[in-house]
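Moderator note: this is an archived Q&A kept for reference. The question asked for a predicted structure of one protein chain; the sequence and the answer are reproduced below.
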Amino acid sequence: MTMQEDAVMFDSAMPALESATPTLCRLQLSNELRQLRLRAGKKGAEVCRALAWPPSKLTRLETADNGTVEPSDVIALCLIYGATPEEQSTLVGYAKVTKTKKDWWQVQGIRDVVPPSFKAFLGLEATAEELENYESEYVPGLLQTDAYIRAIHEQAHTGLPIEQIEKLVAVRITRQDVLHREMGALEFTAIVNEAVLRRKVGSAEVMKEQLLHMADLASSVPNVKIQVVPFALGVHPGMNGPFMVLKFGALALKPIAYLENLSSAGVSRRDDDVKKYRQAFSDLQALAPGYKESLSMIYAASKEF
């Protein structure tokens, strides 16, 4: 590939700055700075020596593991990599966005109830083009009603102040905006264990409303697809627990897996791990009833509450 061809590929994935979020800019910067380094034939250690940087600084820039990016750091890297003036201008613009804008979960009154590890996930979820989610016990967060969310926190996390519960409800409801974006709505595919439909969370009215909400989304929102794994299926690839796979499409970032349990949550970018979860989700899709039959299962379960 020639430098001209590489530059065209570089430009094609760039979002407009006026609509770009800080998270999107950090991810875009990490991806494109790494592309520039590889195009220039530079090793990371070589770059760090030239700039008198600790290796961890370049690693954070290339993995988007930083809250803000200094424009001066981007300029220094662009000079070493031989970036074009247009490339440098765009990347500096991205760096400025990380310093002048805040993501919605960073605003006062919300950020104090969001753990650091989950803030990282929120940024990825808000940026992803596709999300595959298997859930064994709960309705997927992007499909939950406010009453269901409230019941989860009241019953599973006893002792939380009402004010904190309401903030947690607001966080989850706001997350759901990704399903309804005017441009680039998230393609969301959920697979749930039948137990999700049967286990009562809150009152019978809460569950009935929740299941009908799921059914409404599955039947009326084109980018939302839901399948149900029936008890009769027996052993299946999701029995080790819930997981998500996020895909980023035009950003040219590799898919990642997200896992959480009672004590921790985290993202895995390891190719082997991600491959296993993508295969598990694909196998679940093949084994579970199709969308229409699954929708019928959801409606049937709603009539039992």
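Archived answer notes: The longest strand covers residues 187-193.
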